[in-house]
């Protein structure tokens, strides 16, 4: 027998539910249906405790404050959560808004409840430089609390849900701020944890508060179009009803309507008109078991033709939040697209409740256990991001990336499935496998073929990462990775690497400056070093050396202090100063200026740049002129006898405007063992073209030989090195 029901969610949210006041007696009566009597008594004790703690406090609406914790507890009870979660919901604000301490809660209700309450409490007692930083730190603390106990987020979501239902009393600016936070953070978290019922309501209420005019326009358009849809929807449901009955399949068939925020977001993202978005009919078919899901799918595919490429099997490959269902899109009557979801009763429950289903049905429910396991896997990744992130704002931005996944499913060489967000690259995959794999990856094979590390991945591909022990992350990866874990891991590694290199360069610069006093760093008394470090209020010598290497302190002044000759008028016999030898392998704290492209053989000079370290220019570079009157910024440098890398050089070639000129020049460059890093066409007229190449070269002689070979080409009119 097929049971039919058409449901349309309220377009005004569920604020109307708050009109009838919910009392402690109502809560206890509700809890009696699934909790033990002694557990209900414990909840009532928590209510009396909370009411006394909040006595005299009111909300902006004027009602006693205790009605808010009661409403949060009601939402938790509707999810049929355990009694400790209900108690934490009632007490979630007592540590923040009253004199009650964590120790008192432990004494009255135990360690578990106190940890839950502490996890939900806000950081209003800490001082932050900005509201953005405060919100980011608050979010970071909440996410860390969730990793210890998933129930924290359930209380937090229930708290946010009631705040959104009663948002009308707030000032417009505060309403918009809270609504934005809800749409950007809390609704995506609910979705990530599979709690679609709460996610839909948060989106609906957030949309109404954030964009009241747009909400009203979309709402009116939906109401206007709904009347015409009812008849068509009934025909579709009846057709599916009859086919299911003929096939002997028992099912619930539910006509669904998109919520207003989903319609608005789709219109905005895909630049569609309202009719293009709303002209999609959605039907959910709920059956008894997995086998019947696939049978029901076959029935609807026989009834209406499926749209190619729009079938997704989330039963075989569940989403990250444990969601399972079969999705397909059909060509309905008159060409109307119909979205179909086919799932079991258990899958439907998990789809609505997500991780909350774990507490709702503990016994023999593998689906909800899977949902919680996947949630924990995601939260484990969040914890890794937190440990590597530089600050709370960076952490928040990286986690927000992970809160909006449109998944792609990738296979490892061993056949395991890994899920990544849409747009993920091979580097994202490497970091998803393990941070060490990401840090040392040098190449990738996609479906057994070598591909660039920046290649975007698509569902069904098999990806194999090739690593090398000495490899390290490339800063350029930050321009294309999309996952928070990859971005944070790369930044963390490069930051530590840069600090180590800055210490090494700082030591060399300080030793070089101490030569003027006939000393080296090893010869300076440890007491003198300790005294200077303490005077500058630095953690240690390495921090001082790092500051020198990054250009934040002058090596000459530090050397003067360490020599003991910084008293005014103290005479110093300067020893002859040797230039600092550079190879190019010193790392990120030594760079070669892109304005003049110095290469071995060029006379060079080093300029200390605050925060960047040592920047090497050619002596003839125009940009060095601004440092002529700042001798303290100059560092005498020379090329090491054995340069360690290839260097970039720029040449400008004026050619006759003929077909094949670029190919001929590129052939000469390749024959000379060089690579083209960049090419640009700066000037054009009818007869000539000026081409600027950025090339890799090992020395000035190598570049001169290359230019000599180019000059022999008949179409080359003029060639010279580009100068800063």
Describe, in plain words, how this protein is organized in 3D:
The structure is a single chain. With about 725 residues, the protein is of the alpha+beta class. The chain has 27 helices and 22 strands. The protein folds into four domains: about 5-210, Hypothetical protein af1432, CATH 1.10.3210; about 215-365, Beta Polymerase, domain 2, CATH 3.30.460.10; about 485-580, no CATH class; about 645-720, 2-Layer Sandwich (Alpha-Beta Plaits). Strands 1, 2, 3, 4, 5, 6 and 7 form a seven-stranded mixed β-sheet that branches. The chain has a four-stranded mixed β-sheet with strand order 14-16-15-17, with no helix packed on it. Helix 20 crosses helix 22. The radius of gyration is 33 Å and the shape is globular. The chain starts with a strand and ends with a strand. The model is unreliable at about 1-20, about 120-130, about 360-370 and about 565-575 (pLDDT under 50). One of its GO terms (cellular component) is plasma membrane. It catalyses: guanosine 3',5'-bis(diphosphate) + H2O = GDP + diphosphate + H(+). Pathway: Purine metabolism; ppGpp biosynthesis; ppGpp from GDP: step 1/1.
Fourth CATH level, the homologous superfamily of the largest domain: Hypothetical protein af1432
Overall, the morphology is globular
State mean pLDDT (0 to 100 scale). Answer: 79
Which structural class should the secondary elements be placed in? Answer: alpha+beta
CATH architecture term of the largest domain: Orthogonal Bundle
**Rg computed from alpha carbons, rounded to a whole number of angstroms:** 33 Å
Overall tally of structural domains: 4
How many beta strands in the DSSP annotation?
A: 22
Low confidence ranges: 1-19, 122-129, 360-368, 567-576
Task: Tell me roughly what share of residues is in helical segments.
Answer: 40-55%
Q: Which CATH class of the largest domain applies here?
A: Mainly Alpha
In the CATH hierarchy, the third-tier topology of the largest domain is known as: Hypothetical protein af1432
- Indicate the proportion of strand residues: 15-25%
